[in-house]
Amino acid sequence: MKPKRYIVSRGPADRWEIGFDLVSVGFFSSEAAAVESAIKAACSHEHSAGCEVLVQQADGSLRIVWTYGNDPPPS
Q: What is the pTM of this model?
């Protein structure tokens, strides 16, 4: 099974959003808040194994910031 990817990106008006399965979820005031929410969502996913949280950089590239099983879950 292909791992699920949660992609955090800057949205309109310098707000941050999470993309998952082609759907944008929520607006957050900071990248850190969006990443934390994405990690929590990934941990609660039915098939968490292999889930990743990535942040879209200004040049469009993606940087992995958290991987289920490699990084600690949020406290």
A: 0.87
